[in-house]
TrEMBL record:
Keywords: Glycosyltransferase, Transferase. It comes from the Bacteria. InterPro entries: PRTase-like, PRTase_dom. Gene3D superfamilies: 3.40.50.2020. The keyword Glycosyltransferase applies. GO terms for molecular function: glycosyltransferase activity. The keyword tRNA-binding does not apply. The lineage of its organism: Bacteria, Pseudomonadati, Pseudomonadota, Alphaproteobacteria, Hyphomicrobiales. This is Adenine phosphoribosyltransferase. Residues 59-182 form the Phosphoribosyltransferase domain. Pfam families: Pribosyltran (PF00156).
């Protein structure tokens, strides 16, 4: 036990869940406390199976097809299956992943700093210079599983543009709350999502309820 409230740990498991309809496919997401008075509902797309992956790939492709993308870009880690499923559903082949692990071959990569709502501290997004020719002058759609603070997506957009691509759209399975809108600024209108999730505060009896305006 600690006397300093700042040292107190929040138990992330609330035992509650939030149901969201993802383009006709309902999923239950655990509500996870990040602070004593703040929780999110957490989608781990890699735990939802290949049929769900194919479903979101097809549903996002249906929204993104008219933008005529040449190639899809996704950010590690949870943006990887989304990028693959959307690429497959659009009938494309190549895709580009923005990595987070500083592999040996990425020593000279293009780099952007990000800090997402679900990961502690600052992270780096890395674009392999060998992938730049796949993007330069191309129509690109950037995908991810979730956009929340918008930091990860903003970093992805900056990197893709540094590589000389035109970003014609953004595809996400879920938008979360609204913080991402000012973060993306003029790029907000590029976002296509399959569903929206709020953020949560506890009411007096400890039940987590959607925060107003989220
Ligand atoms: O809008 P934001 O606040 O940036 O949050 C969204 C990002 O957070 C998650 O990634 P995370 O950083 O947890 O990394 P992971 O995909 O490697 O698990 C998610 O996959 C998005 O990329």
């Amino acid at each position: 036990m600690t006397d300093n409230p700042a040292d107190a740990k929040t138990d992330p498991a609330t035992g509650q869940s939030w149901c969201v309809d993802v383009a006709g496919w309902p999923i239950d997401l655990p509500i996870v406390a990040i602070k004593p008075d703040f929780a999110i509902s957490l989608m781990m797309v890699i735990d939802l199976g290949v049929r769900f992956g194919a479903h979101v790939g097809q549903a996002l492709a249906a929204k993104l097809k008219a933008l005529e993308p040449d190639i899809i870009v996704g950010a590690a880690t949870l943006g990887i299956p989304v990028a693959i499923d959307v690429t497959r559903a659009l009938g494309l082949d190549a895709y580009v992943i923005l990595q987070k692990s500083p592999k040996l071959h990425l020593a000279n990569a293009l780099e952007q700093r990000i800090s997402s709502i679900t990961s502690k501290g600052e992270q780096r997004l890395l674009l392999d210079r060998a992938a730049v020719p796949l993007l330069k002058g191309k129509r690109v759609v950037v995908v991810d599983d979730v956009i929340a603070s918008g930091s990860s997506m903003k970093g992805s957009l900056d990197l893709v543009r540094k590589a000389g691509a035109e970003v014609v759209g953004i595809g996400v399975i879920l938008t979360e709350a609204t913080e991402w809108k000012p973060m993306l600024g003029a790029d907000e209108h590029l976002v296509h999502s399959l569903a929206h999730i709020p953020q949560f505060s506890p009411d007096r009896d400890g039940t987590w309820k959607p925060r107003a305006g989220t």
